[in-house]
Amino acid sequence: MKVDYIIVGSGLAGILFCEVLKQHNKSFVIFENESQRSSTVAGGLYNPVVLKRFTQVWKAKEQLDLGLPMYHKLEQSLNVKLDYKIPVHRLFASVEEQNNWFQACDKPNLSHFLSSEILHPKNTAVKSDFGYGKVLETGRIDTATLIKSYRGYLQNSNQLVDETFVYSNLILNATHVTYNNYEAKRIVFAEGFGVDKNPFFNYLPLKPTKGELLTIHAPDLKIDFVLKSSVFLIPLGNDLYRVGATYEWEDMSPDITTKAKEELLNKLDKFLNCDYRVVDQIAGIRPTVKDRRPLVGQHYQHENIFILNGLGTRGVMIAPYVAHQLYSFIENNIALNKEIDISRYKTN
Ligand SMILES: Cc1cc2nc3c(=O)[nH]c(=O)nc-3n(C[C@H](O)[C@H](O)[C@H](O)COP(=O)(O)OP(=O)(O)OC[C@H]3O[C@@H](n4cnc5c(N)ncnc54)[C@H](O)[C@@H]3O)c2cc1C
Fold first, then answer.
1. Beta-strand relationship, 209-217 and 240-244
2. Residue 208 Cβ < 6 Å to ligand 1
3. Residue 294, ligand 1, Cβ within 6 A
4. Which residue of 46, 93, 146, 315 pairs with 12 in a disulfide if CB–CB is 3.0 to 4.6 A?
5. CB of 192 shorter than 6 A to ligand 1
């Protein structure tokens, strides 16, 4: 079977790249072995402000301008709801934090995204003596629904190969690559954390971070915004809330842990003032990179081999942006943004 592209991995990176290929009428198949769950378990938040340091997320406006229309198009083609517009409220722990917020509101690159009004809701279920600051242009993409629906669509159109991609079976030619009975002009690897097994790209400095999230049932909480304190609290509807996430750099097992659960509950109990019950816990491994920039580009020796990885902690916002960057680079010869180009790293 001849196609324009083989893609390995149908997480956010692989799926958004498929969407760009579709827009340009390119043919493709995608391999997926369901070995990882980062894109499925993600909180799915998109938020243009780093709320720890009060700085703007890298290329926030460009990413939102490009990304949200893509998710809206996907809502239509898959016939599902994906984008839940919801404000993020930053809970203040002190007057000093309020002052930092006011300073941030005055910064030209943040004023567009932050409301300078301090909110004091009467909800007693949250300890909020110092109030909240509201971040604008935020929301949540239901990534679990996106991944499930998109894989369903790919399956129906015979574009999903439900198996592990075996690197040693890839044959490289001057003008194309072959893999079992597939021949493609190019191959794009988008395996997230799994790139550590990829002999073409495992020299790149991916420093994966495991994350865990809880789901709680809290009937008296009644908040209709994402609350950001030491953790995020994300309303899911029906009195369910997602709490997270943790950051773990040593244990890369896919399993949930008691340690993470205790850490999240300790943090939650510092600001929550109502009863709740834990109903679920999930874990995934984020493909984070030392310099916090994605890993995008062409293999240094093999010109038909590409990578789309390193989406880190903000895959929802960054995936559409890097998918477009890679496509324009391959098909239109437009240089990649230097900060994401893998040529910034030595080969071995
Ligand atoms: C707990 C947690 C919370 C998060 N919250 C947010 C959030 O609120 N907002 C946000 O923007 N981001 C969030 N993220 C980050 C986001 O999930 C990641 O940036 C994103 O999922 C990375 O997508 P990816 O496609 O690169 O990798 P993955 O989702 O890991 O996808 C790679 C895919 O490749 C497949 N694969 C790997 N190797 C092979 C092989 N050899 N053959 C076949 N298939 C293979 C895997 O099974 C997997 O499906 C969160 C992550 C975690 C873990």
1. antiparallel
2. no
3. no
4. 315
5. yes
User: How far apart (Å, rounded) are the C-alpha atoms in residues 223 and 153?
Assistant: 34
Radius of gyration of the chain, Cα coordinates, nearest whole angstrom = 21
The residues facing 182 across adjacent strands are 179
Beta bridge partners of 119: 132
Q: Is 289 in the pocket of ligand 1 (CB under 6 A)?
A: no
* Segment 116-141, tens digit of pLDDT: 999 998 899 999 999 999 999 999 99
Q: Which residues of 91-124 are buried (b: 16+ CB within 10 A; e: fewer)?
A: bbeeeeebeebeebbeeeebeebbbeeeeeeeee
Which DSSP category does 198 fall into? Answer: -
Residue 193 Cβ contacting ligand 1 at under 6 Å: yes
pLDDT of 268-300, one tens digit each?
Answer: 999 999 999 999 999 999 999 999 999 999 999
Ligand 1 centroid–CA 38 distance in Å is 3
